[in-house]
Amino acid sequence: MKKAWGILILILAIGIAFPVLQHLLKKQEAFTPNSLIRMHIVAHSDSKLDQDIKLKVRDHLVNWLSPQLAACSSAQECRLILEQKLDAIRDETCREIEACRGNYGASVMLGEFDFPVRTYGEITLPEGKYQALKVVLGDGKGSNWWCVLYPPLCVGKTAEADKDVRWFISSLFSELKKKAEAHE
Fold it and tell me: What is the radius of gyration, based on Cα positions, of the chain?
């Protein structure tokens, strides 16, 4: 019985790993700096409280912006909506900071900013200048978080693990191992 489960797991692993490896090897720079808009949130500091506030602000903004940007058909259209909502975005950010017991404000900008190379699932964005909504919490001296607002690679998807292929494979193998051990 153990041997049968081992063979089944091996076949399943190869069946999953092969297409995943193909995708990883074929990663392409699918977007140009002008065809997307990124979001960049910089924490007040690296204290646990300020990093927690950054993540709460991230979740709030992603969920708040999601329905407003859902109908966008271009980066230009998304930029126009964001430009019109900058004050509201700042207000939403400050409300969330206050709700999390932060004692500082925030600045919100829409412009062109430098970004390092970053991979989102199968999409790799090269280092360079990109259009972005930049949200700086307080002094902005803490670690940051970023994603892509348009096309929506972060809208409605705040958990990094949901986008990480390695996490998926690891979770799948863990579950298969638990099931195999349960049947022994």
Answer: 20
